Amino acid sequence: MRFGQQLGRSALKLEKSRAAWGGEGFSGIFREELKRNAASLPLQKGLSVTSVALDSAIEVMFIGAHEENGRIFVKVGIFYEGVVAGCSCADDPTPVEAQAEYCEMLVEIGERGEASVEILEEVDGKQH
User: Fold this and answer.
1) In this predicted structure, what is the pLDDT of residue 128?
2) Is the pTM of this model over 0.85?
3) Which strands form 71-83's sheet, in the order they lie side by side?
4) CA angle 103, 108, 114 (to 5 degrees)
5) Cβ contacts of residue 110 below 8 Å, gap of 6+?
6) Four-residue CA torsion sign, 38, 41, 45, 48
7) DSSP class of residue 50?
8) What is the 3-state secondary structure (H, E, C) of 64-120?
9) Which residues of 82-114 are buried (b: 16+ CB within 10 A; e: fewer)?
10) 38-82 pLDDT, tens digit each
11) Hey, which residues does 75 pair with through a beta bridge?
C-alpha cells in the first residue's frame, strides 16, 4: 500500500467524483460527496482522544490524488468530533462536550465509482 497501513475500511459509491476526475472541480466535488457519505466513513477507528465518533459535521481536507491502473487514490484529512462516553451519573467527571478529532484516510475509487476508504496510521511521526 502506497500511503499507509489499513486500520479500518469501509465501502461507498463516489460516482460524481469519478466522473469529475481530471477536471478543475474534482477536489470540491470529491469533498462534498465524501461529506454527504460521512455515516459510511470509518470515523470510529480514527479516534485518538474520545471514544465515540460523531459524523454530524465533518470537514474534508484534500491532501493529494493520483491515478494508477484505472483506479483513483485520494489522500484526505478528516476533521470531526467525538465524545467520551461516561456513565451519565450525577458525579461523573467525564466531559460531555464534543472534542475535536482528526485522522487521515486513503480513498480508492474504481472505474464505476465504487470506493473503499481506509484509515491511515501514523507510526513514529510518519504515515504508514
Assistant:
1) 46
2) no
3) 6-13, 114-120, 99-109, 71-83, 52-68
4) 120
5) 18, 70, 71
6) negative
7) -
8) EEEEECCEEEEEEEEEEEEECCCCCCCCCCCCCCCEEEEEEEEEEECCCCEEEEEEE
9) bbeeeeeeeeeeeeeebeebebbbbbbbeeebe
10) 999 999 999 998 888 998 889 999 999 999 999 999 999 999 999
11) 64, 106
Distance CA 47, CA 93 (A): 20
Mean pLDDT in residue range 83-112: 83
How far from the centroid of its chain's Cα atoms is residue 45's Cα? 10
Which residues 6+ apart lie within 8 Å of 57 measured at CB?
80, 81
Taking the CA atoms of the chain, what radius of gyration do you get in angstroms? 16
More confident residue, 87 or 115: 115
Kindly compute the dihedral angle of the four CA atoms of residues 68, 120, 115, 72, in this order, to the nearest 10 degrees.
-20
